[in-house]
Amino acid sequence: MSEDRSLPQRLVREIDTSKLETGNVIAFLFICTMDSASTILLPRSWRRNSMLMVNLLAVAGGCLMGFCKIAQSVEMLILGRLIIGLFCGLCTGFLPMYIGEISPTALRGAFGTLNQLGIVIGILVAQIFSLKVIMGTEELWPLLLGFTIIPAVLQSAALPFCPESPRFLLINRKEEENAKEILQRLWGTQDVSQDIQEMKDESARMAQEKQVTVLELFRSRSYRQPIIISIMLQLSQQLSGINAVFYYSTGIFKDAGVEEPIYATIGAGVVNTIFTVVSLFLVERAGRRTLHMIGLGGMAVCSILMTISLLLKDNYNWMSFVCIGAILVFVAFFEIGPGPIPWFIVAELFSQGPRPAAMAVAGCSNWTSNFLVGLLFPSAAFYLGAYVFIIFTGFLIVFLVFTFFKVPETRGRTFEEVTRAFEGQAQDANRAEKGPIVEMNSMQPVKETATV
After folding, report:
1. Could you say which of 340, 371, 401, 439 is the most buried, measured as most Cβ atoms within 10 Å of its Cβ?
2. What's residue 447's pLDDT?
């Protein structure tokens, strides 16, 4: 996911761009298809082994893209992108769910943020290696795309030493003893009775439910509100404008007057990584909802500053520095909340039964909005100029208001507690819309929240 974003645009000019754009569209459709397919695969699949098997796709896709120039084959590049699209779609479902299921309640948000940290580190590494002095040349750029193989091989070597999800073993496979042993090893304590009992309660509830499909998520009153929240949080990540900044950051910095914009882009990648680490330490202290609102609000202010500075930079040279600063702070606020939180909060809003379908819907929403921003932003920027970021300001304000009124705080609460709260809202549909959320956000968790 990371290296493809950082491929220098000058290096693809020699490629038949019409074919490449077609490949982009097909790859996007493949991502969404495979993300939706995880609805079928996830409930039945061993979490660890599934991640191990999909690494074969990363190796295959990386090989095709890495050797496409030697073979003088645009088709190999497109096929490689298709396979990487398949890989990304499946990973979008597998990884956040596995992390959420092996994490203790008190640290679930912090561990969930590690998923985003891995993504931003990958982006930063790809940005650095795409420099002309390293691999950003016409001869070496295919090898940069082939780097997908390296993390896949490393993960394949490490996964056999990782435990299977204890929730999957107990709830889906009824292997209580194995689940108990894994929990004792993960938690470092022999007393895991409370966690086992919570899983048993969820298993009993799941046995009384029919298998939840994507359509059922929207039909059932119990699932409708959490799935809408999940979709909106995913949209808040992509429609915030962050990918517009990263896809076209070099051009934006150039317009702002930076002589070597590629280095400013790498600087944004460094800020991206640093503030993901900051979020790692804040998410269990401040909570998901609070950090998400802080991030959205800060990004809205920065997008306004970016617009003003781009409009005035020709009249005032110092406005270029304001624009650069606004972009860097924009990225920082993104990683405080909208960057990591939507990836793992979906798993927190659903029990074991509907969780796979919910992850698929949320992931497809994320990839769809990501694709649309990348597709439409150049045209919007051409016609609107600096005012294009006002569009994102509007989205950010809408998502901020939605988060304030509709998104519950899940910090320190078990999956069962969150599920019961939504079911309680569904049973009393005549309440005012704000009332249930206030009640849920004021609900005291059973366990004390640990700090990182």
Report:
1. 340
2. 45
